Amino acid sequence: MEKVNLSEKFNLFEEFWTPKIAGELNDQYIKLAKTKGEFVWHKHDDEDEFFLVMHGALTIKLRDKNIHLEPGEFLIVPKGVEHKPVSEHEAHVLVFEPKNTKHTGDVESEITVKKFDWI
Amino acid sequence: MEKVNLSEKFNLFEEFWTPKIAGELNDQYIKLAKTKGEFVWHKHDDEDEFFLVMHGALTIKLRDKNIHLEPGEFLIVPKGVEHKPVSEHEAHVLVFEPKNTKHTGDVESEITVKKFDWI
Questions:
Q1: A80, part of any domain
Q2: How do residues A16-41 score in pLDDT, each as one tens digit?
Q3: Per the domain annotation, does B104 fall within a domain?
Q4: Number of Cβ atoms within 10 Å of the Cβ of B11
Q5: Which of the 8 DSSP states describes residue B97?
Q6: B→A interface, C-beta within 8 Å
Q7: In this structure, is residue A82 part of a structural domain?
Q8: In CA terms, which of A83, B22, B53, B73 is 20 to 30 Å from B88?
Q9: Which of A4, A26, A73 sits opposite B5 (nearest CB)?
């Protein structure tokens, strides 16, 4: 049982859109993602997702609006809602979601990560 | 579906050890707690708890050691583990835990909150 320093963990990897697992609780994972550029449109039929920006800025595009997140701001995307995360510049994001959440939800893409690594 | 700015939410209340609900997902709550002084020793038999310090410092006392958390650091306290959060000075903490988690777990105290308010 050890604490986790988010900055130290973010310094351990470089890849964008490849979340790493930093903690596990109540069948949920705490994941750390570096974002830059565009992710794919997708939805999760059964899982709500929490995004908290720690560094940089992340925009969550929805079909009817865009939500821009700065450090210290979070958004919960409810199950079934199509979304597309984008970051103009590098951002660091903490994600909280059920363990069985698929990376790109209902779509499969060349960027889909099928197995998440712990960091 | 709106974003939440943590600093703005923390500015809306003053009470210590009285977490407010700032979000809900997958039968879990996102809670915001202001901490200062000592909480009570307790455990949760069925729920793991996540503590992320956003401002100030929080120490989680365990029976065999103390874990000191600064901003950007988190700790997951597994179910069944006795713990006592303490802060010498005011701190702001983000908590993830199942919706049915009791404030002071297996003990009841004069500081026990039985119904959490949304903020």
A1: yes
A2: 999 999 999 999 999 999 999 999 99
A3: no
A4: 10
A5: E
A6: 1-7, 23-26, 28, 30, 47-50, 52, 54, 62, 67-69, 72-78, 81, 94, 96-98
A7: yes
A8: B22
A9: A73
Which one of A27, A54, A61, A74 makes the best mutation probe of the B interface by having the most chain B beta carbons within 10 Å?
A74
Q: Which chain B residues are within 8 Å of A77, Cβ to Cβ?
A: 1
The residue written with tokens 């793991």 in the block is B48
Domain that holds residue A87: 6-98
CATH assignment at residue A37 = 2.60.120.10
What ipTM goes with this model? 0.95
Q: CB distance A28–B96 less than 8 Å?
A: yes
**Domain tally for chain A?**
1
Q: Residue A104: helix, strand or coil by DSSP?
A: coil
pLDDT score at A110: 87
CA B88 from centroid of its chain's CA atoms? 15
Segment B30-69, tens digit of pLDDT: 999 999 999 999 999 999 999 999 999 999 999 999 999 9
Suggest the residue from B8, B11, B26, B63 to mutate for an interface test with chain A (most A CBs closer than 10 A): B26
Residue B105 domain-assigned (yes or no): no
- pLDDT averages per 10-residue partition of chain A, 119 residues: 97 97 98 97 96 98 98 98 98 96 91 92
Residue-by-residue DSSP string for B33-93: EEEEEE---B--SS--EEEEEEES-EEEEESS-EEEE-TTEEEEE-TT--EEEEEEEEEEE
